Amino acid sequence: MNFIPYLNFFSRLVLFVAAVYKATKTREKGWVILSIAFFIFVMDIENYILKPLGITINHNVYQIVSKIPNFYIGILTLGAAFMLKYGSIKPKHILIVGTTLIVSYIWIFAMAIGLFHGNFTLASLCPSWILGGSLLYLSFVLCEYVIEKKSLQILFPLGLAGVGILNLTYPFTREIEWFYPLAFFGAAIFRFIAAVGALKMIIFSPKIPERRIVKALELGAYWTEDERKALEIASKMNTVMITRRYPVKNNGNALVYWITKVKEGEVKENVYAISPTKIDILTDLIARAFRVGYNLLYIDAVEFLILENGFKATAKFLYTVKDIAIGNNGSILLVLNPKVLQENQLKIIEREFKKI
């Protein structure tokens, strides 16, 4: 099994390249942080991987420096997961990351003064569990990004979860001579699985609309109570529909996201079911659609989004997608019943959207 160290190194490199490509395509801070974490994964200080590559580490410092990458990767992975899930680092997240950093420093100090008396299992517990736990949390967060649960996209979080579990067991299995090569082999396989899923998630894109020129609505942000009029406008443009209505048919120039809790994934060609709580993912999907030629964002699910996410989060979502639409020379049209909104909520909508 002499090929395993090379396979392990190459699998880390593939996962790093996939993350960098994702960060380049999305420009999201979370993916940038994750790319840095995966780069350190490539440069991991592990004799089993480094010796076959012709790299040796001074034995006197190896026991300490071999644990440091785990702390770095774990902390960066936590930060990336928080950015992907919440869109920003909140004070409680800073507290979690800061506490992890402090624990990491204390653990390194304890190893430096010989507190563990050379016991590998004890010395490895904290760094391995921080790394494994952070990868498991990241895999949970990434599951929310998967639109089609039955597609290859799901391999990304599943692969990372596998690597995370192996790291949780690492302090107890690394010293088992016959088992640890198998564990490294398993980790390499899981990383390849994760990389395949990451690439599938990256290349997921909506079908290019059939028509690109027709504009029944001038560039801008609008709202209306007249659903029939709104649908008539939408039928004449390359429309992204965020709707509560089950899409019975699709006329070929619409990309439909059916907002529902009963189903997820592809319903039919260019029609996808998505949970109302996944508005961050919905924002990314809308941005992709406008990049390939869609020029109208139609939303008739505002009330349902408010019910599931609260008005503040929904308003933030609407402002963001409005900027996406207008920034791509498109328009946004909301269909809503003003009677279901509070007076101050309606005023906030009217401040950004013109009634037609």
Automatic annotation (TrEMBL):
Boundaries of every DUF835 domain copy = 234-353
Q: From which domain of life does this come? A: Archaea
Q: What is this protein called?
A: DUF835 domain-containing protein
Entries under InterPro entries matching the protein: DUF835 (IPR008553)
Task: For this UniProt record, give its keywords in alphabetical order, as a comma-separated list.
Answer: Membrane, Transmembrane, Transmembrane helix
At the highest ranks, the source species' classification is: Archaea, Methanobacteriati, Methanobacteriota, Thermococci, Thermococcales
* TM segment ranges: 31-50, 70-87, 94-116, 128-147, 154-172, 178-203
